[in-house]
Amino acid sequence: MTTIVPRTDVDVRYGEPGATARPWEEAEDALRRAQITWISTVRPDGRPHVTPLLTVWRDGALHFCTGAHERKARNLETNPAVVLTVSSPAGGGLDVVVEGVAERVADDDRLRGLAAAWEADHGPEWRFEVADGAFVDPYGGALVFRVAPVTVFGFARSPASQTRWRFGPA
């Protein structure tokens, strides 16, 4: 698989003098290690909806799962635009905000790989089976979505800086 290299810049208005752009690999690491990710979606009437969930970073994208009847899944039916936010531990690191479009993953082979990733990243209590294009566990089924980054912001605390990574055509 080809690694996508984003266009990177630092916004000097939001950082300490002389702060430089953080490397994309640092943002990827924060996404890979995230314990909790906050997802923001938009309800059909335009109101925001934000909730925490678990994600896995694989193949250049964040993946999340949700029940088909949950609010975020219903929101995605009418507007697939999402924002995913990861915060680093207090006192250091990089807070990361990913803007993108949620696309359903329904291929059972891909889902089996993602199910293994969920268990590897989050432990055996997050073990899923795969059936009929979804995750299945004792509590029911869950749809799986992939969010490839369009624009990502990284907020560093020391030194304070804001880096932007943009993907796709210039």
From TrEMBL:
GO CC term, one of those recorded: cytosol
Sample GO molecular function, one term: oxidoreductase activity, acting on the CH-CH group of donors
Gene3D superfamilies referenced in this protein's UniProt entry, alphabetically: Electron Transport, Fmn-binding Protein, Chain A (2.30.110.10)
Residue ranges of domain Pyridoxamine 5'-phosphate oxidase N-terminal in the record: 25-119
Name listed for the protein in its UniProt record: Pyridoxamine 5'-phosphate oxidase
InterPro entries reported for this sequence: F420H2_bilvrd_red/Heme_oxyg, Pyridox_Oxase_N, Split_barrel_FMN-bd
Alphabetical UniProt keywords: Oxidoreductase
Biological classification of the source: Bacteria, Bacillati, Actinomycetota, Actinomycetes, Geodermatophilales
